[in-house]
Design goal:
alpha+beta; Pdz3 Domain; two-stranded antiparallel sheet
Amino acid sequence: MFDMLRTIFAFIVDIGVLIFFHELGHYLAARSQGVTVETFSVGFGPALLKYKAKKSGTVWQVSALPLGGYVKMQGWGEEQTKGPARPGSFAAASLGSKAVIVAAGPLANLLLAVVIYAGLFMSTGQVTTQPVLNQIQLGSPAAESHLQAGDRVLAIGDAKIHHFSDLQQIVVEHPDTVLDFTIERAGKDLTLPVTVGETTLDGEKIGHLGVIGTQSALKRLAPGPAIAAAFHETGRQISGWFSGMATLIVHHKGLKDLAGPLGIAEISGQAAALGLVSVISLIAVLSINLGLVNLIPIPILDGGHLLFYLVEFIIRRPVPEQAREAGLRVGVLFILSLVVLVTFNDLTRLGAFAWFSHLL
């Protein structure tokens, strides 16, 4: 019972933080563009808590269903109406202002990840694996190229190697290639030609070396390096997300790995069991995913609205209402299909179908 309550609480906190900052991005952008915001809601359905700001008139509320949120702007959805739009409404805003307001939500999620990573690197430190070859697999390309356990890789070609991940990235990108490794061995610097092997991952050829690095260190960073490292880590996560999407679309692999609310709740509970740092780190990862998913150009998502604005900019007139409605129907159908898929994946991972089959 305690584990279940902890999982539910961690899930609500994680989702609440992500939605709040996403909608805060929309809210701040709308205010900066002179658009009146009528309601700022974390969650859907009946309001549990509500407060109306005297100066702006915005109603801030927490609603019953914590699986989303919204910012209700004056004049939202009235772009196709005839006649002059009300001053201060979303419909009266310029095309550029509308794009800024819509894009601000996903960008706020990406910025949140940078802030979280920077805070973690300054407070608890950044975990880095040193570019030291602790183990060399027998018969591997590394062994055949005369690399030895204990070698520290200083550079590959002209690229300086600071972390083991730098080494991994270069090797993966150069299958079946000879690379010049500059290593430190027994206090001396050596340069060795290393032949990178080749393997296949998800139908794509990648480099293979056959080395293991286990020498990790936790280092606190000063504000400047911490911010730079936070941007680098966020960029790495974004790059990984695009690689995963490419694998999903091109090779149709990874569908079973997609997780929905139940899967996120399970992961949130596992992170909560490990401690506060794990919870905060998970929020950063989820925030990046939420921001990028919302930028996918599917009608109903922020990326879909941006797509409509781009078309409007190109054709110099609003997208016809029939085309908008058709796009929204397709978007809703796609999202519902995705919800069914990820829910099926979640229930399968949780053993619900196996339990039901056993019950029958």
